[in-house]
From TrEMBL:
<dbReference type="InterPro" id="IPR007111">
    <property type="entry name" value="NACHT_NTPase"/>
</dbReference>
<dbReference type="Pfam" id="PF05729">
    <property type="entry name" value="NACHT"/>
</dbReference>
<keyword id="KW-0677">Repeat</keyword>
<dbReference type="GO" id="GO:0005524">
    <property type="term" value="F:ATP binding"/>
</dbReference>
<dbReference type="Pfam" id="PF17776">
    <property type="entry name" value="NLRC4_HD2"/>
</dbReference>
<dbReference type="InterPro" id="IPR032675">
    <property type="entry name" value="LRR_dom_sf"/>
</dbReference>
<protein>
    <recommendedName>
        <fullName>NACHT domain-containing protein</fullName>
    </recommendedName>
</protein>
<feature type="domain" description="NACHT">
    <location>
        <begin position="166"/>
        <end position="300"/>
    </location>
</feature>
<dbReference type="InterPro" id="IPR027417">
    <property type="entry name" value="P-loop_NTPase"/>
</dbReference>
<keyword id="KW-0433">Leucine-rich repeat</keyword>
<keyword id="KW-0067">ATP-binding</keyword>
<keyword id="KW-0547">Nucleotide-binding</keyword>
<dbReference type="InterPro" id="IPR041267">
    <property type="entry name" value="NLRP_HD2"/>
</dbReference>
């Protein structure tokens, strides 16, 4: 209790003093001493010999009064303190039974989710950016994932402390583990005496009619034939004890309706009043329903703008670093044999696989891909060169495990055709059950089994993809292999996505990466696979048809390459498309239009730099440059930058770029033999940072111009520049005003 305030400890102590029949001189002396340590010692001495009922009461007081108790510890304390549910839900047996039913549902869900987990979920090893909204936040336009936050890095366990009675948002990319972590939280709270309600937005999409919160609980969440009296008792219990309930609302990005501020209720709502499901959700968030309850919402970073002024806490799940990726690969392949070492070596050699593996769900796909490659060739040294080819390999791994009912290799293309045809139709329940007989061994690619509640309240088993991009890839594969998709339909679906999100943007979750995979499938490396799948779909003259479809995609990219009006984010997306297509001619066309690629005010990841490198390195003898302005980038981005061998001009401008940045950059730039101009003005370089840059003068023989003005350096840095220029005849101009 050393992290608790003196007032909290004193309150616990006074409750002990007032306990029946406990009066002695030790209490008086401890109270007079006033030391927290003395008071805690007195508490321990007393409750070591107290009866079970008094100990349970004390533990309940600890959970109610103490702050920042780790979630798993609080759950265990409450489980011990409330061995009989009526002590918390002290109104009726019906309330206690409903809590027990919810507990069983949560535990069943957790068992289903963890059956195929590669590694255990440990909340104290999951990292979160704990974010606070800036008070003046009112943007009309913000870059995706950067909504005016200040932040600090904490563990998930620390982040969840103190969330009781608050509205908490956990944001993260698709596949970052939000649903799994919330299920873990539910499993822990299931060991306590709280009513824990886990609602998925994709399930709420089925509720098209207006309904009350009690109907949501008794007809949708835990339907049964309890009777009106039992349900009324549960509602009364909720109204009297809202702080004993926790509502997890998972996957807002999959919700068909948006929570709009002008529709949010202002007065307290009746639990029995029918409302649209979006209004019920907003009622929980705005405290018009069950004020004092705990609400946890998971969503994408771009969705958080819908909830400005509603959140008490916001946390963003961090991507895995290389150590976490290696640990996952280790668990996937096991400790025996060479597979782990071979797989790790292959993964680290591929920027695409490494970037994908920063998200847990995609790391699983990468491991499936690597396992398939190593099974085919234990000495494999080549990995897929694009994201599209990674998914093709993963799909091949999945299809190779389907039962062979004759037809040899041809069955692969037939299965693939039938598979993607049904996926395009949003994977109906009938399709799911049709495949259940033979996908059990391959469920790691499709993900885990899930339960889907139908309109009549019954539960059916289904399978869901482990990541949205899997479904997007299969949709792209259908577009590129089905004669039922016309050229006009393809043109209509093809567009670059921007990373800029406005408040009025409509969500398009199904098409975030679709265009990338369409471009990737236009690569000659994918032609043969497309021919096999298209042949199974009944396309006539399949070779010519596939080549025409691929040519159409490349023709759609050419006007974009010639456009000089693309914003930085769309320009970067174009580079990603060109890289996926592996078409050097398109890359050269893009550079002829804009010899210097300018990127401003958004976050870059290593995969982005890798796409830029593909385009820049196609330049041959053309002078090309990269100009980064106020772009946030991870340290690994500079490692990826080392692949941009053909750069002639390089520019960085941001107060975020400091001496550490300059030191890292100075290790990379000697590998740029063609670099002629370097602009590092308008940064935050101090004397040490300027020193790192100056040391490059002798290592870059073609460098002739350097700009270092408007930094944070002193006259000492200027002297350093002058001294170095005396021995570097290649440096013709240095700007250091």
């Amino acid at each position: 209790m050393d992290n608790q305030s003196q007032s909290v400890i004193m309150l616990l102590y006074q409750r002990m003093v007032n306990d029946d029949g406990w009066q002695n001189k030790q209490a008086s002396s401890s109270s007079n001493a006033g030391s927290s340590a003395d008071l805690v010692k007195a508490l321990l001495d007393y409750y070591r010999s107290a009866n079970a009922a008094k100990c349970r009461n004390f533990l309940q007081s600890v959970c109610m009064l103490c702050e920042d108790i780790p979630m798993h510890l609080e759950a265990r304390l409450m489980s011990v303190a409330c061995s009989e549910y009526e002590q918390i839900w002290s109104f009726s047996t019906a309330s206690a039974n409903y809590v027990l039913e919810g507990r069983n549902l949560l535990l069943s869900r957790w068992k289903r989710l963890t059956d195929r987990l590669v590694k255990a979920v440990e909340l104290d090893r999951v990292w979160v950016n704990f974010r606070n909204f800036r008070p003046m936040f009112s943007p009309q336009l913000e870059p995706d994932g950067d909504y005016g936050f200040s932040e600090s890095k904490v563990t998930m366990e620390t982040f969840l402390r103190g969330c009781k009675g608050k509205v908490t948002f956990l944001v993260g990319q698709a596949g970052s583990g939000k649903t799994l972590l919330m299920s873990c939280l539910g499993q822990q709270w299931a060991n306590a005496s709280y009513l824990f309600v886990f609602l998925e937005f994709r399930q709420l999409n089925q509720l098209s009619r207006s309904l009350s919160l009690s109907e949501l609980l008794f007809q949708h969440y835990l339907p049964s034939n309890r009777g009106n009296n039992a349900e009324k008792a549960i509602v009364d219990c909720l109204l009297s004890n809202p702080e004993k309930s926790c509502w997890v609302l998972d996957g807002y990005d999959e919700f068909l309706w948006k929570i709009k501020k002008h529709r949010m209720p202002r007065d307290l709502l009746n639990l029995e009043e029918p409302l649209p499901v979006a209004d019920l959700i907003s009622g929980l968030m705005t405290r018009q329903l069950l004020p004092g309850s705990t609400v946890v919402v998971t969503c994408r970073a771009r969705d958080i703008v819908d909830f400005y002024n509603l959140s008490d806490k916001v946390g963003e799940l961090l991507e895995w670093d290389q150590n976490e990726i290696k640990e996952y690969v280790h668990h996937f392949f096991g400790v025996e044999g060479k597979s782990y070492f071979e797989a790790t070596k292959l993964l680290l050699s591929s920027q695409h696989l490494l970037a994908m593996s920063s998200l847990p769900a995609l790391c699983n796909i990468c491991c499936i891909c690597l396992k398939h490659l190593l099974l085919k060739d234990r000495n494999a040294t080549q990995v897929p060169s694009t994201l599209t080819q990674v998914y093709l390999t993963a799909v091949a791994a999945f299809l190779s495990r389907l039962p062979d009912q004759g037809g040899g290799d041809n069955r692969m293309s037939i299965y693939c055709f039938v598979f993607i045809h049904h996926v395009h139709n949003r994977m109906s329940i009938g399709f799911t059950l049709y495949y259940t007989s033979f996908i059990n061994d391959s469920a790691t690619f499709l993900s885990c089994q899930v339960e889907l509640r139908c309109h009549d309240g019954t539960l059916v088993n289904a399978y869901s993809f482990i990541h949205l991009t899997v479904q997007e890839f299969l949709a792209a594969l259908r577009i590129m292999t089905s004669h039922k998709v016309s050229d006009a339909q393809l043109k209509k679906r093809f567009s670059l996505k921007t990373r800029w999100t406005t408040k009025s943007d409509q969500k398009t979750p199904f098409t975030d990466s679709l265009y990338l995979y369409v471009c990737g499938l236009a690569s000659p490396n994918c032609t043969q696979v497309l021919v096999e799948v298209a042949r199974a779909s009944g396309v006539k003259g399949v070779q010519n048809w596939v080549r025409k479809r691929q040519d159409l995609v490349l023709r759609l990219l050419r006007p974009l390459c010639h456009s000089n009006t693309l914003t930085g984010p769309k320009l970067l997306q174009l580079c990603n498309c060109i890289q996926e297509s592996q078409d050097y001619e398109l890359a050269q066309q893009a550079l002829r239009t804009r010899p210097t690629l300018e990127l401003r005010n958004f976050r870059l990841v290593p995969n982005d730099i890798d796409a830029l490198a593909f385009v820049v390195n196609s330049a041959a003898d053309q002078a090309v440059g990269l100009d980064f302005g106020a772009c946030s980038m991870e340290p690994e981005c500079l490692d990826a930058l080392s692949r941009c061998q053909c750069i002639h001009f390089l520019s960085f401008h941001s107060r975020k770029y400091n001496d550490k940045f300059a030191e890292k950059l100075s290790c990379i730039l000697p590998g740029f033999p063609n670099l002629r101009k370097l602009d590092l003005s308008d940064n935050n370089l101090q004397d040490d940072g300027i020193g790192h840059v100056v040391e490059l003068f002798t290592k870059l023989p073609n460098l002739s111009s350097v700009k270092l003005g408007r930094n944070n350096s002193s006259l000492q840095a200027l002297n350093c520049i002058v001294e170095k220029m005396g021995s570097c005849l290649n440096i013709l101009q240095v700007y250091a005003e």
